[in-house]
Write a structure and sequence with these properties.
Elements: H1 7-26, H2 28-37, H3 43-54, H4 70-89, H5 97-101, H6 104-121
Helix pairs in contact: 1-3, 1-6, 4-6
């Protein structure tokens, strides 16, 4: 039986996944740790594909108040624009993580993720298990 998830709770879960992806994208150290723990996973693909799983042109209109502030949506949209540009300029297939981390494009992605994460971190994560009744 499918779980009936209230819309605000679903949005809170999406918010938390976006924050997690920005955390991974913003930290070379976290990317290397992930690669070390999961050697069969190609972390560059994870960084690129996880973002697209949660943020794309069709999903951005669903990032609404009160779960997402206008400033947070702007930060997500800004990161998405950098992400698209990096995707366009990065070789396909993606090189290994160490090669990407030495390049200009991956550095731009990391910097944009740091900027966007800083905006979302002001209010932080919301509960995954219960919709908020008052908003930070």
């Amino acid at each position: 039986m499918a779980e009936n998830i209230p819309p605000f709770l679903l949005a809170q879960r999406v918010r938390n996944r976006i924050i997690e992806i920005l955390e991974l994208s913003s930290s070379y150290e976290e990317q290397r740790t992930y690669q070390d723990k999961m050697p069969l996973v190609h972390v560059p693909h994870e960084v690129i594909n996880q973002w697209e799983d949660w943020v794309n042109p069709l999903s951005v209109p669903e990032l609404v108040a009160p779960v997402f502030s206008q400033e947070e949506v702007a930060a997500i949209t800004t990161f998405h624009a950098v992400w698209e540009d990096v995707c366009d300029k990065t070789p396909n297939p993606l090189p290994d993580l160490s090669a990407l981390q030495q390049g200009e494009h991956w550095s731009r992605l990391r910097d944009a993720a740091c900027d966007s994460l800083a905006v979302l971190a002001r209010r932080g994560r919301f509960p995954d298990d219960a919709p908020l009744t008052s908003w930070p």
